[in-house]
Every structure is written in C-alpha cells, then in structure tokens.
Amino acid sequence: MRWEQLPTPCYVVDISRLKGNLEILKGVADRTGCEILLAQKAFSMYSLYPLIGEYLSGCTSSGLCEARLGAEEMGKENHIYSPAYRAEEFPAICGLCSHIIFNSFAQLEKYGPAAIERGRSVGLRINPQYSTQEAHAIYDPCATGSRLGVTLENFRPDLLENVEGLHFHTLCEQDAYDLDATLEVIEEAFGPYMERMKWINFGGGHHITRPGYHIEVLEKCIRRIQNRYQVQVYLEPGEAIALDAGYLVTEVLEIVKNGTDTAILDTSAACHMPDVLEMPYRPPLRESGEPGEKSYTCRLAGPTCLAGDIIGDYSFDHRLAPGERLVFEDMAIYSMVKNNTFNGMRLPGIAVLEEDGECRIIKEFGYEDFKMRL
C-alpha cells in the first residue's frame, strides 16, 4: 500500500525513524552499561515490541494491563511502578514483573513481603522535591503536594532491609543538564541510602533522541552514579523511543467561514491527539508554517461537538479544499495510548511506513470498538 492509499484518519509509524531512535539509545546503553527500558505509557504499539526488544532491555508499566502486555509481547525485563496497587491484582503483578517499585513505605509494608517471596526486586520511588521545569506544571512530579514518591521528611531507613533499588522521575522533555542538577540534590538527600542499593532508576522525561540533546552529559551522569555507588542504572524513556517517528494522516472534510477560515478535519484534537488540549501542544504539520508566514492562514479543527476541539492555526501556500490530505508529525507518542471515542468518533487506523516506502495496515477500528467501551 502506498502512502496516498491509507485510510484516514490513520496513525503511521515510520520504521526508519524508530530504528534511528533505538540505535541512539542502544549506543548510550552500550557505552555506559546502563539498561534502557520502554515506558509503555507513551508508546504501546506492541506489534513493534519484537523490534524494540532487539535494542532495549525491556519495558516499564504503570499497572497490571501494561505489565501483562510487556510480558506477553516483549518478554524481557518487566518493571512496574504505581502510586497504589490493588490487592486483587497484586498476585498477578508478582507473576509478571521482575522489578516492583512502591510509592510509599505503607505500600512497601503491605505488598513488599509478597513480592520478595516471589523473588522480585523491590524498589521505592523517592521525591527529591526539586523541580527543573516550568512549562508543563501538569507533568511536574515535584510540584508542591505531589503524591508521587517519598520525600526525605517521610523516609524510613529502618524499612530498607529488603529494598534493592531507588526510583525517581522528575523530568519532562528535558536535557541532561536538568538530570545532572537533579542528581546533585538527590545525592545530598538520599546518598547514604543509595550506597545500600543494587540499582537506581533515573525514570523518564529524558529527550535523548532530540537533536541537540547533550548525550555526553547524560553518559557522565550514568557513569558517576554507577561508579560511586556500585549500582545498575536504569532509564525508562517513553517519548525518546518514538520521538518524531510517527504521523497522523487526516483529510479535510469542509471549510467553515466565520471571520477566519476553519478546516474541519476527520481527526479530532479531543479524541485523537489529547495532548494538543492538555499541555497545550501545537503539533508540527508537514508543508505548513506559522499563522501569517505563508499566503493562506487557516484554523484546523475536529468534527466533534466540542467548541474547543481546535488543533491550531497554520499557514499554507494555497487555500485548503475538501478532500485534501494533511500530515501531522510527531504523532507516535501519547496518541494511540490516550485516544478516545467521544461523540462516537472512530479511532484512527494504525499503520507502519516500511523502510522501502511501502505502508502496511496493522489495525483498523469501527463501531464495535466504540460500543464495547460502553
């Protein structure tokens, strides 16, 4: 199937770009000895797990369903972290996961014995209370009053006997200099406890595959912690794995005129690219410019009844018309995993763009996928 034959809307993952990202990540792991895991919360396209598993050490999960997916479809190291576990699910989690990370000492006391009995490596998430980001408060785990991780004030060294690792996740789309600054704070507060560990998990939010990212600084951080504390370092990026490796192909359905031209697309910000409204985020669009940059500026919007289902304003070299196809970029991450069927919107198909330029449909959706959720 050629690109122009794809049904719309459709997510398309570019295998060549995905491999490029994976090669960068594997290079970091090979040079430092760290282990890099796929954070499934950002990208769970399991048909590509065999490929990803050729480069990475395994998966991380946020709950039982992701843990099962990682175990079944990749079958390598399988880590899990949750702010709180469900008692009825924990036996299954123990059967699926190699590393189980707890959010509090209360959770450790409640579930730790069962995990240890099954021979699992037990970890604890810490909160250094040090924020390095300003743009996306909704994604700041170190915000005042955060529920994520144990603060130094609430730390219980007397309960560390069977704890083998410490985990922190403080970054969001950030460079290695932010990690370096965070590590200084963590070492000052938790250094004595790090010496008792077998592994330290740096979490995610590292934009390792972004052009200009300072990989050499990241590698220095990894080596410093591994050498100083004699631990195994883990990283669990999500975005970096499929960053700029996917597209969302859509079609213009209609042009509405009301002070400005608005193109109604067959894709929805609210349903198919939720980060556009949540962050907010302006997705890159192929062959377009900023408003006013090119000769024709048009607002792009979804077909739902939500008045705010607006993707953004873009400019073009020509006037848009019904039937025209547009291609949003960087649509592999936080898209398929977050979409929904509000208004009965059909979920986009899922396809891959092979290295030879051919496209292959992985999955298509219809009425039953809407109905079964209700």
TrEMBL record:
GO terms for biological process: lysine biosynthetic process via diaminopimelate; nor-spermidine biosynthetic process; spermidine biosynthetic process. Keywords: Decarboxylase, Lyase, Pyridoxal phosphate, Spermidine biosynthesis. Substrate binds at residues 239, 275. Residues 11-331 form the Orn/DAP/Arg decarboxylase 2 C-terminal domain. The keyword Nucleotide-binding does not apply. It comes from the Bacteria. GO terms for molecular function: diaminopimelate decarboxylase activity. Signal peptide: none annotated. Its cofactor is pyridoxal 5'-phosphate. It holds the Pfam family Orn_DAP_Arg_deC. Transmembrane segments: none annotated. The keyword Ribonucleoprotein does not apply. CDD domains: PLPDE_III_CANSDC. This is Carboxynorspermidine decarboxylase. It comes from Lactonifactor longoviformis DSM 17459.
